[in-house]
Specification:
With 450 residues, the chain is mainly α. The chain has one domain. Helix content is 64%, strand content 1%. The chain has helices at residues 7-10, 13-33, 46-57, 67-70, 73-88, 90-101, 107-116, 125-151, 157-172, 191-206, 208-222, 232-255, 264-280, 294-306, 319-334, 349-376, 381-392, 407-422, 424-432; strands at residues 340-342, 345-347. The protein has a two-stranded antiparallel ribbon.
């Protein structure tokens, strides 16, 4: 007789992963809705607290209220914990704690942990997650120290430390939350704030696997060890990231109508900051997004759609997905034999098909969101689509309509932010359940396309 499976074994790793994020989000929403989290001591509408918590766990940064003026210190710390957990994944903390206690992870938990952070190897899972936490707190600490020294010139030391920690964690986790009402617009001309946020965000958006690969490469160069080759994944991430950010910065620099007294250096810094913000999905802004040109807004939507890199704290379809799709399309024009070769390595077609699958689902979700929100929200279609893509890409940039969203609009974007955080394929698998193995094949017959 076939043994019965208990409920835990019936749940798939994708469902367990999604369930964990839902539980953290609900817990955060309950805490944020309590009077002890708000400055005026009132309950917050649960849909608003759920929206903020979902935005935090997905490291999106969209919010219907001003974080600095609505929430008190307790509420802000709750949000800080939520987007810190969302940035590196709750499984990172769980695996690290289990590793410290010397407990062996069961296979199901190991698969869930691997699903939570792309780039991890199930054979060295505990070590990889220790590296993740080391990288996280190292770069967050460096960013916090620099920002603290800067803000100590304006605020008391304790507040400067808090501001430094909050914004450094928000930058590394590409969350984009700020306690300032205008995000970073007040520090548009500050080279220290701009460069610190840019560097910390880029590091968070590259992905932990790339950071580890870079450190290993540098270590081998210093010790004159061979071979010292970086992986094709890391090379593709670095190239696509650099090209996308550079091209976007140039376009925004040329497309905007800058104030007459603004020097070209400051214009370039502002354009570069916004390009990095959209690309890494950190969501900070030094410019008024709602008043920017149509060209810049379209560029930002493309950047948010592409997003950061696999295994990072950012969202989007990911830089490697975009790189593989472009490589495939270019190869299709050049040759009938569609073998994708990058850096003298052949990429499996299954990976290319997965990239197109991710792209297809992102397009479908963005269009469905656009249709629903255009029927329920007030604003131009560009503003609505911008908001939807920002939520799906976990970016947090907005043209200013977030606070005006209806109940339906908030609910749609909450679901969208969740899908963007775990990925459309993982979200779909969590709904479908276990995939069935196909044991047969039909006869081949061609269809006409194009």
């Amino acid at each position: 007789m076939r043994p019965r499976r208990n409920g835990f074994n019936v749940i798939t790793p994708s469902q367990l992963l999604l369930l964990g994020y839902v539980l953290v989000t609900v817990a955060g929403a309950i805490l944020l809705s309590l009077p002890i989290s708000s400055r005026d001591g009132h309950h917050q509408h649960f849909i608003d607290s759920l929206f903020v918590a979902a935005s935090g766990i997905s490291t999106t940064g969209l919010t219907p209220v001003d974080i600095g003026s609505y929430y008190n210190l307790f509420g802000q710390i709750v949000l800080l914990c939520v987007f810190q957990i969302g940035g590196i994944g709750y499984m990172a903390f769980a695996v690290f704690l289990i590793y410290i206690l010397g407990i062996k992870l069961p296979l199901t938990a190991r698969i869930v942990a691997k699903e939570s952070l792309a780039g991890s190897d199930i054979r060295m899972l505990e070590r990889f997650f220790v590296i993740v936490l080391v990288f996280t707190f190292l770069f967050e600490s460096i960013g916090a120290a620099i920002l603290t020294v800067f803000w100590a010139q304006e605020y008391p030391l304790t507040k400067a430390i808090y501001l430094g920690v909050f914004h450094s964690v928000s930058a590394f986790c590409t969350a984009g939350f700020s306690v300032f009402p205008d995000s970073m617009m007040g520090y548009r001309n500050s080279g220290v704030v701009n460069s610190t946020i840019i560097i910390v965000s880029i590091v968070g958006g590259l992905g932990f696997f790339v950071l580890y690969d870079l450190c290993e490469y540098v270590r081998k160069v210093v010790h004159k060890q061979y071979p010292r080759r970086m992986t094709s994944h890391s090379k593709l991430v670095l190239i696509v990231t650099a090209v996308v950010m550079f091209c976007a910065s140039v376009i925004v620099f040329g497309a905007e109508k800058w104030p007459a007294g603004m020097t070209w250096q400051r214009r370039l810094m502002a354009a570069g900051f916004q390009a990095v913000s959209a690309s890494t999905t950190d969501g900070f802004n030094t410019l008024d997004i709602g008043s920017m040109s149509m060209t810049s807004l379209v560029v930002f939507m493309v950047l948010m759609f592409i997003g950061a890199s696999p295994g990072s704290t950012g969202g989007g379809i990911k830089t490697t997905t975009a790189g593989l799709i472009v490589a495939f399309l270019w190869k299709q024009l050049k040759s009938r034999e569609l073998r994708i070769n990058l850096f003298r390595r052949q990429i499996p077609m299954a990976t290319v098909c997965r990239a197109f699958g991710v792209l297809g689902w992102f397009v479908i979700i963005a269009l469905v969101d656009g249709v629903i929100l255009s029927a329920t929200e007030h604003g131009s279609f560009l503003q609505i689509l911008f908001e939807a893509i920002s939520a799906l890409g976990n970016t947090g940039l907005s043209t200013g309509i977030t606070s005006q969203l209806t109940f339906t609009g908030k609910l749609v974007l909450i679901i969208t932010m969740f899908i963007g955080r775990v990925g459309p394929l993982t979200a779909g698998l969590s709904l479908i359940g276990r995939q069935r193995r196909v044991l047969y094949e039909y006869a081949t017959e061609d269809v006409f396309v194009g």
